[in-house]
Amino acid sequence: MTTYDSSSRTSVGSLPAPPFWICVLLGLVMIAAGILVLGDIMLVTLISTIFIGWVSIIAGAFEVVHAFWTKGWGGFVWQVILGILYIAFGIVLVSQPVASALILTYVLGLVLVVSGFVRILLGVTHWREAGWIMLLSGVFGVAAGFVILTGFPMTGLWVLGFLLGVDLISHGIGWLAYAWRSPVAVSGT
């Protein structure tokens, strides 16, 4: 029987924890990037839309190529159709970034509302198992979705960039918290 020590910071395989200064540097860089993104959220929204479009085009091309490489696996026609849909979606995003940003933001608002209601139901259903956290998360999701949808189409010009900026800042804060909670930072060595 094998036992695992969950107190070790090297719980992911045998990888050592990153040095303190790397965690701090990564946290500071991400916070700075988030602040930079929040400086021009409309531009970042358009850049994000174009980036998503190019990723979709590349993924679609790989899907089509993969369908031909693995012809004997079955589902060849579906893989080709899916790849073509990815490519078409990407072309639309790249060719019309403003309209695409609006569409992506609207879909994001709908997804937030629906997933928020699902989390609220799960929170109520599992109240005894700390369901209040799920309920709170659901309320936040529904509120965020309604903010996006009620402010549409103006929210389509800034929401994606704003969310990216906030995500970068929160990720940076997470790395800083991780750095200061590490045993090296606690012991002072």
Automatic annotation (TrEMBL):
Signal found in the keyword field: no
Recorded superkingdom: Bacteria
Listed transmembrane segments: 20-39, 46-69, 75-94, 101-124, 130-150, 157-180
Signal peptide per UniProt: none
GO cellular component: plasma membrane
Record key words, sorted: Membrane, Transmembrane, Transmembrane helix
Pfam family for this entry, one: DUF308
Keyword Transmembrane helix: yes
PANTHER family per the UniProt record, alphabetical: PROTEIN HDED
The protein's name: HdeD family acid-resistance protein
Organism taxonomic ancestry: Bacteria, Pseudomonadati, Pseudomonadota, Alphaproteobacteria, Hyphomicrobiales
